[in-house]
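Q: What would this complex look like in 3D?
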Amino acid sequence: MNYRGIIAIYRFEMARMWRTLGQSIASPVISTCLYFVVFGSALGSRIDKVEGIEYGTFIVPGLVMLTVLTQCISNASFGIYFPKFTGTIYEVLSAPISAFEIVLGYVGAAASKAIIIGSIILATASFFVELKIAHPFYMMAFLILTTFTFSMFGFLIGIWADGFEKLQIVPLLVITPLTFLGGAFYSIKMLPPFWYKVSLVNPMVYLISGFRWSFYETADVPVGISLIGITLVLTVTLSIIYWIFKTGYKLKP
Amino acid sequence: METVLSVESVNKIYSGGFQALENINLSINKGEIFALLGPNGAGKTTLIGAICGLVNLTSGKIIIDGFDHQRDFRSARSKIGLVPQELTTDAFERVIDTVAFSQGLFGLKKDIEYVDKLLKDFSLFDKRNNKLMTLSGGMKRRVMIAKALAHKPEILFLDEPTAGVDVQLRESMWEQIHCLKERGVTIILTTHYIEEAEKMADRIGIINKGKIVQVDEKKSLIKRLGQKTIQIAYDGSLEGQALQDLQSIPNLKLDGQLINYEYQSTSAVEEVPKLFKVLVDHKIPFSEVESKEKSLQDIFVDLVRE
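A: Here is my prediction, written as C-alpha cells for the whole assembly.
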C-alpha cells in the first residue's frame, strides 16, 4: 500500500481548500446564515413546530446535508477533473499507486472538506437555534458515510465530465432539487399521500431522514432503511469506480 | 549489455480503429541515451505512454528492470520518471511543493534536502517559493524534469524535451541530460529534432506510422545507411577514353569542372579507389577533393519516405 502516495494526494487537495479559504469555507457559512435568517428567523417564527420541533431547529440537519452534498460533489468532481483538464493527471497515472489509493486520496480529501464545512455549519447554527444531538455517534456515522458516498459520486462526475459546464449539471439539476424535495426544509409526512409516496423514491429522503433522526429522534423513514440506502449507493459508486480504473474509461486511451 | 527495458510485440489500436503501434519490439540498455525519432503522429508519445502506464495496450508485454509493467506495476513504475511533452503544471502550486508532491506520490518520505539539490541543479532554487504560474516556459520545463527526478528513477523518459525551447536553454538541457547519464540514469528521449538525436544519443530508434523501422548505434546507423559524396575539382577538359571511363562509373556525375561521386560508406574500400585509378591512369589533373557524409537528417528523411 502506497500510504505516502495517498497522503500526498490528500494533502495536495486539502492545500487547495486552504488556498481558497474564502470560497471553500466562507461562502457555505454565509449562505447557511442566510437560510437561518430567512427560514429560521423571518419565516420560521410564523411557522408551527414540525414533529414537535421548532422550525429553525428542524431545518438544521437538512441544511447541513444540503451543503455537505453540494460540497462533496463539487470538491471531488473538481479535484479529479482539474488535473484531467490541465494534463497533470499523467503524474498520478504513471506513479506506483493503485486505483483504490488514488480514489482514497481524492475522495478522502473531498469528504474531509465536507465534514469540516458541515461541522462549521453546525457550529454556526448553534448561534441561531438551540441545538441538541441525541445520537452523536450515529450523526457522525451518517455524516461520514454520506460524505464518502457523495464524494465518490462527485469523483465519477469529474471523470465523466469533459467540460466545466458538465461539472455543474448534476449538482444543479439533480442533487440540489432532490435535496430540496427530500425533506431538507419539511417533513415529507406533511405532504399529501400521493406526493409522500412519490418522495419515497427520492434517495435524499433517506439521507436527510436518517441524519435528522440522529439529532431529534424523529424520522420520515426507518433509520435502518436509511443506512441500507446509503450503503447501497456507496456500493454502486464503488463498483463503477472499480470498473473505470480497470478499463481506463476517460482516463487512459 | 544489461537490458533495463524491453518492449515485446506491443500493439495499440485506439477505439476508433486507428493502429498507433504495430508489433513494437525494443530493448533499451542500462545507462544509455536512446533517441526515439519520428515525424509527428508516428507513435512516439503513444509508445512512451504505453510504457509509463498512461495508455492501455491492445496486446504485448513490457518489462521494466525485470518487472512486468502491469502485474508488478508498483516496482516497475517506481523505476521510471516521465517528463511529458506538454507543459502541464498546477498553476497555483509552489515550485518546492510540486517537486515534494512527486516524491510523496512515488511513496517516498519528503526529502527537502534532495528537493533543494534538484532545484539547485536546475537553477530553480531562487524560485522555489514561487507559484508555477509565475515561471517562464523554460523554467516550467525544468520544474517538470525536477519532478520526474524527485523519486530518483533509473529510467527517465523525456518526451520532446526541447520543443519550443530557445537555443541557449536547449544547449543547457543537453548538458543536464548528459550529467544525468553520467549519474547512471538511462534516458529515453523522443524528438523530431534530428540535431538533438545526433548530438545526444548513443542509440537511435526510428519510428514511423507506428512501426519501428530502424534501431542501431548512432555511429553505425550513420555509417551503414549513410551515403558519402566525393567532390573533385579538376583542371582542363575531359575527352576520349578518360571521359568514357569516368562515365562508366555508376553514381558519378560531371558538373562543369566538378566530378560528383556518390557511394555507400560500407563499400568505400572497393568503390573509391576505382575512381582515383581512372584519374591517375588518364593523368587528369585535380586540385581539390572534398568528402561529404550524409547526415542523420537525410537518413531519417529517406527512411520515413520509404
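A: To summarize the key features: DSSP finds ten helices and no strands in chain A. Residues 55 and 152 of chain A are 32 Å apart (CA to CA).
Q: Very helpful, thank you.
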